[in-house]
Amino acid sequence: MSIAHGKLGIVTESQVARPANPRRRQARGERRIQQLLDAAASVFCRTGYTSASTNAIAREAGVSPGTLYQFFPNKEAIAVELGDRLTQQMRDTHGVAFTDKNAALPLGEMLDVVLDPLIEFNCANPVFLTLICSSDTPGAVAEEHAALHAALQTRVEELIGTYVPELAPERRTRIATMAFALFKAGLELILSHEGEDREAYITEVKNCLYGYLAPVIGTEAASARH
């Protein structure tokens, strides 16, 4: 056992103050940040981004405004961090939905395995749509979403090309744009309902897309045609 000598005598090593464990401190900070982001998501969904305030977010999180300001200087910073995390989660969701294996399925099955993860993400994170639809969403969030939208558009075009590779590029782009617009419109209906009604609208959205795409790309598995 080592010892240290001070003005008041001998102090054992166990009595010497040590700095907090950096990893533990970092973990606590990350938990607090997530707590604040979850609270912000609830407030944004309930009141809209424009009407939300840092005081309301702090109350929702059960902390003082001073605690909130230790992590975020303002509401915009909270929205940017929340948007960054949700955008990354959505990118991961795209990776699950748009795979070569899924693109080789018959149209009905393909719509199920592609749309279900996207719908599930948005139902679990309704604040994502709230943020991107707000007129005064921070520019960084809008830019991230624009990039995400462009990436999704490209994936839909590639998916259509898997079924009908002979389709002209401009025609493929129009079909992808229309299909995506139909999905977004249907998604708003899905999110505005719950329970059996939500499930019914999910079915209607899939039926709508099936009816639109079937005459263009067919209903058979892509591998069965080439």
Polypeptide structure, described:
- With 226 residues, the chain is mostly helical.
- The protein folds into 2 domains: 1-73, Arc Repressor Mutant, subunit A (Orthogonal Bundle); 76-224, Tetracycline Repressor, domain 2 (Orthogonal Bundle).
- Helix content is 72%, strand content 4%.
- The protein is built from 10 helices and 2 strands.
- It has helices spanning 22-47, 54-61, 65-69, 75-97, 100-103, 107-124, 127-133, 139-163, 169-191, 195-217; strands at residues 3-6, 9-12.
- Strands 1-2 form a two-stranded antiparallel sheet.
- Helix 1 crosses helix 2 (54-61), helix 4 packs antiparallel against helix 6 (107-124) and helix 8 (139-163) packs across helix 9 (169-191).
- The radius of gyration is 25 Å and the shape is elongated.
- Residues 1-20 have low confidence and may be disordered.
Describe this structure in a few short sentences.
InterPro entries: DNA-bd_HTH_TetR-type_CS (IPR023772), Homeodomain-like_sf (IPR009057), HTH-type_TetR-like_transc_reg (IPR050109), HTH_TetR (IPR001647), TetR_C_22 (IPR041674). With 226 residues, this protein is mainly alpha-helical.
Oligomeric state of shown chains: single chain
For the residues shown, what is the average pLDDT?
Answer: 89
Helix content: over 70%
The class by helix and strand makeup works out as: mainly alpha
- Reading off the top of the CATH hierarchy, the class of the largest domain is best stated as Mainly Alpha
Strand order of the largest sheet: 1-2
CATH-defined architecture of the largest domain:
Orthogonal Bundle
Radius of gyration: 25 Å
Biggest β-sheet strands, sense, barrel: 2 strands, antiparallel
Number of domains: 2
How many helical stretches? Answer: 10
Distance between the termini: 77 Å
What low-confidence regions span 5 or more consecutive residues with pLDDT below 50?
A: 1-20
User: Count of DSSP E strands?
Assistant: 2
Q: Assign the CATH superfamily of the largest domain.
A: Tetracycline Repressor, domain 2
Q: Could you give the order of the helices and strands?
A: EEHHHHHHHHHH
At the fold tier of CATH, the topology name of the largest domain is Tetracycline Repressor, domain 2
* Beta-strand residue fraction: under 5%
GO molecular function: DNA-binding transcription factor activity; transcription cis-regulatory region binding
InterPro entries: DNA-bd_HTH_TetR-type_CS (IPR023772), Homeodomain-like_sf (IPR009057), HTH-type_TetR-like_transc_reg (IPR050109), HTH_TetR (IPR001647), TetR_C_22 (IPR041674)
Domain HTH tetR-type: 30-90
Organism: Streptomyces himastatinicus ATCC 53653
